[in-house]
Amino acid sequence: MELLAVFLPLIAFAIAGLFGKKIGDKGCQFITCAAVIIAALSSISLFFNVAYGGTAYTTVLADWINSGDFHIKWALRIDTLSVVMMCVINIVSACVHVYSIGYMSHDEAKGRFMAYLSLFTFAMLMLVTSDNLLQLFFGWEGVGLASYLLIGFWNHKESANAAAQKAFIVNRVGDFGLALGMMAIFVIFGTIQFDAIFSQVPEMAETYFTFLGGEYHALTIIGLLLFIGAIGKSAQLGLHTWLPDAMEGPTPVSALIHAATMVTAGVFLVARMSPLYEFAPDALMVVTVVGATTAFVAATIGLTQFDIKRVIAYSTMSQLGYMFFALGVSAYGAAMFHLMTHAFFKALLFLGAGSVIHAMSDEQDMRKMGGIWKKIPITYGLMWVGSLALAGIPPFAGYFSKDIVLEAAWADGTWFGHYAYYMGIAAAFMTAFYSWRLLLMTFHGKPRASEKVMSHVHESPTVMLGPLVVLAAGALFAGMVFYQGFVGSAGHHGDDHGTAHVEAEHHGEEEHGDTHEPVVIHDEGAEVIHAAEDGEEEHHAEDFVLSKETFWNQSIQVLAANDTVEAAHNVPKWVKYLPLVMGLLGISLAYVFYMFRPNAPSVTVTSFKELHTLFYNKWFFDEIYHHVFTKTAFLLGLFFWKFGDKKIIDGYGPDGSASVSNKVANLMSRFQSGYVYQYAFMMMIAVIGLISWFVFKGSSAGGAL
Amino acid sequence: MIIQALAFYLFAGILVVSALMVISARNPVHSVLFLILGFFNSAGLFILLGAEFVAMIMVIVYVGAVAVLFLFVVMMLDISFADLRKGAMQYVPVGLAIGAVLLTELVMAYGVWAFAPDALANRGAPLIRFEGATNAESLGQVLYTDYVLAFQLAGLILFVAMVGAIVLTLRTRPGVRRQNVGEQHARKREDVLEIRKVTPGTGV
Amino acid sequence: MTDFNLIPLLPEIFLSLVGMGLLIVGVSQGNVSTRVICWSSAAGFVITGLILLGIGWETQTVLNGMFVMDKFAGFMKLLILTGLVAAVGLSVRYIIQEGMERFEYPILIIFAGIGMMIMVSANNLLTLYMGLELQSLSLYVLAAFHRNSMRSSEAGIKYFVLGALSSGMLLFGMSLIYGFTGSVDFTTIGATVNNLSAIPFGLTFGLVFVLAGLAFKISAVPFHMWTPDVYQGAPTSVTALFAIVPKIAAFGLLMRLLFEPFMGMSEQWVQIIYFIAVASMVVGAFAAIAQGNIKRLLAYSSIGNMGYALMGLVAGTAEGAGAVVLYLTIYMIMTAGVFAVVLSMRRQGMAVYKIKDLSGLSQTNPGLAYPLAILMFSMSGIPPAAGFFGKLVVFNAAVASGYYILAVIGVLSSVVAAFYYLRVVKVMFFDEPADAFDGGLPFARRAILFISVLFVLGFVIKPNIFVSSSFDAASVLFQG
After folding, report:
1. Which residues of B touch A678 (CB under 8 A)?
2. What pLDDT is attached to residue C69?
3. Contact B101 A681 (CB under 8 A)
4. Which of A489, A666, C189, C197 is the most exposed place for a label (fewest CB within 10 A)?
5. Who among B116, B149, B160 is closest to C138 (CB)?
6. From the list C63, C133, C183, which residue is nearest B149 (CB)?
7. How do the domains of chain B map onto residue ranges?
8. Within 10 A of A702 (CB to CB), how many other CB atoms are there?
9. A637 pLDDT band (50/70/90 cuts)?
10. Is pTM beyond 0.80 here?
């Protein structure tokens, strides 16, 4: 089953990539879609076996490297954590595959695009099912590569190429951290196999590195190094600049890679390494602070952007911040929960945005949209669903996951936990605001696009809307259905969330009974129905209490003292309701600004000119990087080029090496004269040289002469 | 004892001088003749060592066959050694210097030469069986038994040398007349003779 | 003689019979039978390989201790036979195209092969020398095989003269060793050397001369001068043979010599090998930059590669020896693939050798360009190609024994070397296309190229097959 789930996309990639020309675009689309859909079904079935059946296992495929103490196998580690990821990846990927058939219908290289998508899916699956760090790194680099290929897919666009390179290079900084972390783990633990590492962690808790005279807590260093990798991949503050630029890629790519899956690899990595992080509280503190700050900063930038995809991109970054601070306060389950719900509603938003862009003849600027909601009602409705989920309005998925994240942060009780909570609240307010700003600017008001464009506005074809509906179902129900499993407490079974949960199940069934959408939708429906049945069973069987402990089944480990998810169920009422209130406030404010008082935005902008400039220019990160790194690097480069390279290196190196090695080569070719007696001479000289060496050494060392 | 020493230095001295002459003589024929002289002297050295069989082989094979072959080749080819040596002469000083260094070092090595403690026993081990036998006899005893592998391999090497020589030199030139003895013997009168009646006044 | 047993020699005996039998066939049928004889000799190598696999590789010495059969010898012989099959397979079409279709060609390869197999099984200085000469003599003739080409004859003569000089050195060294230890048998020499309290000069001198002679055979700097000239001058198919096989035999010989009889002198020989390893890596890397002829380039590349392999010897451990064997295996297979491409560089029926001639090959003949690019990446040691692992294991072995500087020099020179390998790729993919090569890749070349590329790419998936078998083979040397 897991082999199907993991390797089908690879096979599809191989077929579409190698024989794309032979089987044609249609063939490529069919094969890749079919493969990923089957993979998605397999992973759903795995999910119920593993997460609810409690059967975690590892499938060894082959020996990989055996060198000295270094033993690595190709193996698939199937536990709750990985099946959750597999489900998310495969379902979203299946949706995106199908959606792409419609979205890319005007593109010339459809086959290649589908092949890349499948390659990406495979690499991501490899990453999450890995049994050791090296295989994870393999997947990690694989998704990086696929992301590079897909961002730069429209390689005739200068900006797409630049963005692809930026993404690759910025990620490389993070990968450096990850690689160092991996090496550090090998140094300390003598293995990079997960089980072997985790079993040793408690013994190694007091290990120290000695470096440059200082002593450093080994696990903290490892945690930080791995986190640097996560920062890069998950676009956290510092290494986030590639993510908005990556929106140059086709929209399905943004949905798959830059919202639902690849960017969550960092979150997954930290969750996977949870047994290690539990013993590195300082590293967790850094994770929290970086995550919380990212959530806030990204939200502020999102307020001011006009490009529809960039707004969603910044919101992705902000939501990733939530996940990270949840990880930082040891609420790994909550983080994974948010990861899952987020994957659904963010992919929905992206694909919805793609549908809008498609309708508007590839226009992305929200200032040139407006007033189109009547023309594309289905897209409009689905965007509402996504936005409600994003803003955290019950009973949408985002409400459950965002709340538990914030509550866990508060429940942590430390200063950084509280910092994260307040940052999160502020971000929640802004999230709601910019989501409705996006909705209102895009769909309402007077049309600002040209006549010609407006006349072309049309609803997208079924093949694009189908996946949207599947994702919308996820955005609606994933929160309630899985709340108990991901973060539910054994003791607090049936609190207010639980009630919502049961009602929603029936609702979900009805709604899905009515839908008449293509094949894919039924898979999702099936999942929900299964889940509902499962829920009912759970009600009947009194002795079996589904809680996060049984659900995660050791794939995530939390020290009892750090169990903030448990504590989150007992926080004060105001802590629970504040995010919701802030969300509603944000929505209302957006209505005020963009519906009722159209001049309010400009007034606000002028009165908070400095702040707006700061936000609008993305906190000047790109500029700062440009000046601090790029320019310095450029200047350094110039310096090294002019002075170091031209004078020293070229002087002594390449040119020089060219001239020196030319000289050397000339010298050699003078030796290499073609005259046999010179060659013979050389040989004799060499022998005598060697003998003289021994004579000299022997006599100077007083050896036996 | 003293006679042996004298003989050794005589042979060795002539050997060195003639070796020197081989490479310095202007006339290539002289070089080969000095080479033959050198062979003789090394044969003498072998006799001093009690290896009379090797000494005889030296004379028969090297002097009798190899060197004479050389001599023929050199005489027939008319090589101007002076021309060949033109380029090489500029390296004589360097060559001499290197040679001198090597010589010094070898002298240093031989000057303090000591055999390994086990050397005598090692050397003696294969000889025990042949106490008192002549060395032709003992060679005969081991050549096809103990050293059969080396012997066979030597055979293969000569075989390859032969094949190689043929490969590199044998050319089939079309249109060259050769004597074919078999054909000559197989010739019959009927094949070559035809009797015709010639009418007077006309040609054949 | 108590140890008279010909079973371990069966492969060699069989191969000699094949050689002589085919010679008779050739003489009676003339040069028209060249193709048949070539393929028969390839079949002969394969059968010899099967016999080799059948005779069992337990360690035993036979024929008065002159010949040893063990796992190491077995593995190396298998490699040699594989290389020979590849060399013959690469040659057939080429010698026909070049008009040197003569039946002695495969026969000489057979005899060279016998020599090489004897070399890796030698347990006595005499056997060593005989094997070496048998191999060398055949190769001298092969180098000059193209009689109508001045360059080929020149290459043959050069190789012969310098080879004779190196043999002279080897013999002089052997005589010193015999003089000191009183024996030519490896086992006895080993025991004698191990009994010494201090190593005297005479023995060291002997070892220096012997190593100089052997360094010539593996074309290690500073005994490498013949290599570029001979590689360039010899017919390309012969160059391929030179690059692929004899080095393995010479390395096998060198390893047995150093690790068995002279292990007690490791302090001395490590210094020598260290020096020639460094010199080979550096010269191989730098001198290649200036080359415009692909055959000369490959000559320097082989010099550099021998430097890396020697690095494993310096380590002086079983791990290092295993690394060398693995390195040679990988090198052999890569080189065979590269030569399959080089042999196919022909325009209007004429062979061309300039790197420039490869310009734009990716457009005119992608079927050659992509495999060659992969092989070049592998040669320059870029992961995950096999070449990377070869370098990795030797560097590892050197580092494990504490030779950090050596490893650093190795890494640096492989960086320099990467430049000229990648230049080939650059020329093929980014330069303006030159005229297309003549089409039609013979089956044998295509098969060799395919296997080579498959190996280079597939190695990473199951490295253990090769790693464990080569380490296993090499470990035998350290049991005695």
Report:
1. 91
2. 93
3. no
4. C197
5. B160
6. C63
7. 1-79, 130-169
8. 7
9. low
10. no
